[in-house]
Amino acid sequence: MDPREGGRAPAAARSVAGSREGVTQRPVAWTSPLLYERLTWPEVRRAAEEDRVCLIPAGTLEDHGPHLPIDCDIRIASEICRRAADAVPDDIVLLPPITHGFTPHHMEFPGPITIGWETFTKYCTDIGDSLARHGFKRILYLNGHGSNIPLVEMAARLVSLSHPDVLAAAVFYLTSDEGKRIIEETRDSAVGGMGHACELETSIYLAIDEGAVAMDKAVDENSYPEGPHAWMDWSDGPLKIMPWWNALSRTGVHGDATKASADKGHILLDAAVKECIEFVRELREKPLPVRREPRETP
Question: Could you tell me which CATH class the domain 31-285 is placed in?
Fold first, then answer.
């Protein structure tokens, strides 16, 4: 069973009896949430005609301390997207996740799989270009890995430039004003406590799959050379510094994972899902772009 279906049998698992005895028709693929890869090509056409938002989770596989699985970024992003698609099934077609991302600075830790920045950007762009070719007009990349941020944003921009009537966007979760407010209300750590494999990510993973988190191995480490303009938290400082990760962290953690809890995770995950739905609805409500002849007055 696809984990994006939330543990219940999708419509595709229920066969429809044919007109002749003993003959079973093809299972219904119009699932809820609507999974792109389960559709036939006529159903893909129907989904595009319904002006749905293509929701694409993106992340990477990389070290997240001694206590979290290396799939942390992509699992969280995928779970947010799956729950959003489940909540507003008529607005979204859910794409398979972009599992591997750009993470060369983590390669001294065992586990990461990194994709070159040009290859990754082109890959994300090609996905969006393909969807645009099939008639989809609204595309949202929901990213869960910090180093993907500029690359996914560039991919969305390139899709929009190649297809002027398409709205393609990229976003990192829990970065809206409301998301930041929820973080501040929920956290116990100071600034620097929510950087990587931290109070936030560990809490959300506990809410998703508590048995996969080794909380007895969680640590509090903040080795980042912070200053008035350079710091690492869920919202970083304006001066961006990113050397090799093992120059910043001995354990792979930046932040205070010991302050994580499943209760906090449920609050943060619910907020991230609500935020994603708001992103989707705003993207769906916006008028499609129309290029106009430049002139001297508005």
Answer: alpha beta
